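Budget justification aside, the reviewers requested a transparent look at the raw inputs and outputs of the sequence design task funded under Objective 1. We therefore reproduce one unedited record. The lines immediately below are the structure tokens for a 319-residue chain.
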């Protein structure tokens, strides 16, 4: 089934070139189907790249999805033209009265700053607070996961001895968990970060389950038992070239970046990187949409406000 987006979004052509069915908003109006409403809080600098990556993964499901993209109005965007934001993005003020079945909070290249030093931090806190009563399930990615845990529970992030950069094998701790149905015993996932959430503090949280980890990366996936909050510390949404682009960008800038591990064949950065996480990424996002969002959210999405403040168990919810 298609992902529904605003007509003429640049990502549409890239997705169609990959034989992914994307439906623009005009065509979707003719269908009498209740789509899932998703909000993507896109904090990445290359917004058009991230849009394509996420939409590619969200399309691998029999569900129709209506996607809104949100930018932080308190941050000056430098890598995306204002015309693109005006055409395809909404501000928080424009969505605060709406309800969403799911929300994705992306990573951001600000992890070496203290959370309070991030220029849009107060706006981020407002979005997190709003989501308690207006979003059914939220998927936090990389810095978005660290920031979400700090905003919600005060979990600090800690500096790593060096940048964690590369493709790493991660465990599947509970193969019967809905988010990991269909997975093998382990999977590969890109990681690209300087910090990690404090595992000691995380272990003290109640009603949470560690679903994936590894010796190299630490925690990889953490979720609340009712699936309303999912924290992915890696970047399953990355495409084949993302880590290569980041590495060569920093290398060309004379920053002497850490070499991505388990990524370039024979550690030769002139060769095409290996793609070893595509199937895991597709399955993970499909499972999140199906089990964390679709099977729990009410058909009348406006009913969310009656239940979400209580943080109820979606298995007991009456649609």
């Amino acid at each position: 089934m298609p992902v529904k987006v605003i007509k003429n979004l640049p990502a549409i052509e890239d997705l169609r070139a990959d034989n992914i069915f994307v439906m623009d908003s005009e065509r979707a109006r003719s269908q009498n189907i209740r789509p899932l409403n998703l909000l993507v809080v896109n904090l990445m600098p290359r917004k058009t790249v991230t849009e394509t990556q996420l939409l590619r993964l969200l399309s691998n499901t029999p569900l129709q999805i209506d996607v809104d993209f949100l930018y932080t109005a308190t941050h000056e965007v430098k890598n995306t033209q204002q015309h693109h934001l005006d055409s395809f993005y909404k501000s928080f003020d424009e969505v605060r009265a709406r309800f969403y079945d799911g929300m994705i909070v992306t990573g951001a290249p600000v992890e070496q700053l203290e959370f309070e030093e991030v220029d849009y931090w107060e706006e981020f806190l407002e979005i997190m607070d709003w989501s308690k009563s207006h979003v059914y399930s939220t998927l936090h990615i990389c810095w978005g996961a660290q920031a979400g845990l700090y905003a919600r529970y005060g979990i600090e992030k800690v500096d790593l001895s060096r940048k964690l950069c590369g493709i790493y094998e991660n465990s599947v701790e509970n193969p019967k968990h809905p988010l990991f149905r269909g997975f093998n015993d382990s999977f590969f996932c890109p990681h690209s970060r300087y910090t990690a959430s404090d595992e000691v503090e995380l272990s003290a949280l109640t009603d949470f389950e560690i679903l994936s980890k590894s010796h190299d990366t630490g925690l990889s996936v953490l979720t609340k038992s009712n699936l309303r909050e999912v924290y992915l510390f890696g970047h399953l949404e990355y495409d084949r070239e993302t880590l290569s682009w980041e590495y060569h960008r920093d290398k060309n800038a004379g920053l002497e970046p850490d070499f991505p591990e388990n990524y370039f064949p024979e550690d030769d950065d002139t060769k095409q990187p290996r793609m070893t996480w595509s199937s895991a990424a597709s399955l993970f996002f499909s499972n999140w949409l199906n089990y964390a969002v679709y099977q729990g959210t009410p058909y009348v999405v406006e009913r969310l406000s009656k239940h979400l403040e209580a943080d109820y168990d979606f298995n007991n919810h009456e649609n």
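Confidence is low (pLDDT under 50) at residues 312-319. DSSP finds ten helices and twelve strands in the chain. Computational costs for records of this kind are itemized in the attached budget.
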